[in-house]
What does this fold into?
Amino acid sequence: MRKLIVTGVLAALLAPRAASAEILERIVGVVNDDVILQSELKLRVVAAEDELDEIKDPVAAAERRRQLEDALLDSMIAEQLIAQQAAELKLKVTNAEVDKALDEVRKQNKVTAEQLERALREEGFTMAQYRSDVKRQILRLKVINVAVRSRIQISDTEIQEAYERKQRQGGATSEVRASHIFVEVPDTADQAIVHEAQGRAEALAVRAKGGEDFAAMAKAVSEDPATKEDGGDLGWIGHGMLPGELDKVLFEMKVGEVRGPLLGESGFHIMKLTDTRKKELKPLAEIKEKLREELYQAELKRQTKNWIDELRKKAYIKRRLTLADSKVPGGTDTKAPAIKPMPDKPVAPAASPSP
It folds into this structure.
C-alpha cells in the first residue's frame, strides 16, 4: 500500500511503544515529578533516520544526531509540562473524542478503518499506539484553549491596521508561490550549533543556486516535515504571512530565483520563487473576519510559546546526556507512520470577540 501523505510534525511524535525487555533503561529527562526515558527518546530519533542517512560525513552525522536528540528531548519536556497542566486543570479526553478524531484522519487520507490500521502496521505501529498519540494531541489542544486563548483578543483597531498595511502595498495584494529547503536550529542551540546549521544551509544553497533540482533536494534533506514530501512547496503566500526579512526578500525575488540561506524564527531557509500573481484587495467588510482569524492564529502561536516558556521557568527540569552518549542493547527501531495527524492548533471560534 502506498504511504499516506504527512502533514505537520506530529505524525513523527507517536506515543512510544513499550521498551524491549533487553533495553537497559535510563532516565534522560526529569520534569517536576515525571521522567522521560531513554527508550521513549530513542523511538523519536529513529523516526528521523532517513534524514541522518543523507549525511555521509560520520562526524557531521554524529553532530546532527546529537542536535536532533537535544531538540526532541526539548519537545518532550514541553509535552510533559502541558500534560501536567492538563492534570491541574482536570482536563480529560474521552474515547468518543478520539473516535471522532480518527474518523477525520480517515476522511483526510481517504482510507477505510482497515486500510488505516494496515498502514500503521506496515510502519511498525499498532492502532492502540496511534489512538494514544491522537488522545495526547487532543489533550494538548484542550489545555492551550483554556490556558492561552483567554490571553488573546483581536480588536477592530488591529484589523483596520492590518487592512491598511495591505492597502499601502499599492491597492492590490501580491501573492507569490515559493518552495523552501529548511535547516532547523533548536531553540536551545548554542553558538556552535547555529554555526554548524548555517554551514549546512550555505552548502545546500550553493547546490540549489547551481541548478540542482530544488524539489528533489527538498525531499531529500529539508527538515520541514510539513513540506518536504511536496518538494518544499509552501503554496501561495501573501504579504505579511512570513516574518519580516523573509517576507521582504521573497517579494523582491524573480520567478525561478533562489536565495539564501535566510535566518527565520526556527532555522535557515533556502528559498525559490516559483510563481507570482496579483489579486484585488476586497473591501474591509468582506475580509474582516478572515483578517481577524489570521491575526488570531499569529498571536496564538506567539502566546503559546510565551506560556510554555513560563512553565519552564517555574518547573524543575533536569536534562541529561542522551542516546549518543550511551550504547543501549536491544530494542526495535521503527519509523513513524505517514498518516495525516490532527491539526496542531487549538480550535478557535470563527471570529474572536472584539473587546
Summary: DSSP finds eleven helices and seven strands in the chain.
